[in-house]
Amino acid sequence: MNDIWIILICVICLVGLYIYVWSIPSLQLFGPAILRGPGNGNRIALTFDDGPCAGYTEQILDILRERGVKATFFVCGRNVERSPEILRRVQAEGHTIGNHGYSHPFPFFHSRAFFARQIDLTQEAIEKATGKRPKLFRPPFGARWLGLHPVLKARGLCLVNWSETAYDWKLGTEGIVREALKNLVPGSIILLHDGRNACPPETVDRSQTVKALPAILDGAMKAGFTFVSLEELLAKESGAEHE
């Protein structure tokens, strides 16, 4: 009986470790993912996940337009269906659009067919709103699972995570600014959010991110960095840091 319990505990520990390992966005083990752009020059990229979200994405776009900054928006298909007009504005103002899955699910224990449907539904929603399909993909939570990379390869999608996160889902304005700026280097890719998963806008509060954004932009530019879209940052993809 004791042997059975020991085996069970070992299996649980191994499964937990396996899930944890797949959850690390920066782990260099399970297939290619871009974490940082080329280090030449002082170009960096600002990215926003989980939108478009009415009430917050528009404020973020206003701030970016005022400062002449281009960013990249990894959008959820369900949110695109809710607010296609916001995504059209993202496109019209010259920002890059990426695929972030349809419903922002945890990736674990799902099949290849599940990933394919999440990605395809989002590609279709984006194309319906903008007339174009993105070439960049960011998995929800930055996590991956078996079967994801073959789906991306078949669709010509490039997986991009990030090198810097501002933890804007849990910090206040000052903390968000501090975390976004503290480790910047040429090629940095910064993670922020303009929505929350695929939740309805009325349940989302990204006011702290909106408040922090001007200071992030001003601080990075004062330090000599230039913001570009991921499309521009990764134009010379061979120089990018991969998983």
Report on this model:
With 243 residues, this protein is an alpha/beta fold. It has a single domain, classed as Glycoside hydrolase/deacetylase (TIM Barrel, Alpha-Beta Barrel). Helices cover 43% and strands 15% of the residues. Helix 2 runs parallel beside helix 8 and helix 7 (173-181) runs parallel beside helix 8 (207-222). The radius of gyration is 18 Å and the shape is globular.
Task: Provide key terms for this protein.
243 residues, alpha/beta, TIM Barrel, 6-stranded parallel sheet, two-stranded antiparallel sheet, 9 helices, 10 strands, globular
Short description:
By secondary structure, the chain is an alpha/beta fold. It contains nine helices and ten strands. The chain has a single domain (26-242), classed as Alpha-Beta Barrel (TIM Barrel), CATH 3.20.20.370.
- Look at the structure and give the CATH class: Alpha Beta
CATH topology: TIM Barrel
Give the total of beta strands.
10
Strand content: 5-15%
Rg calculated over all Cα atoms: 18 Å
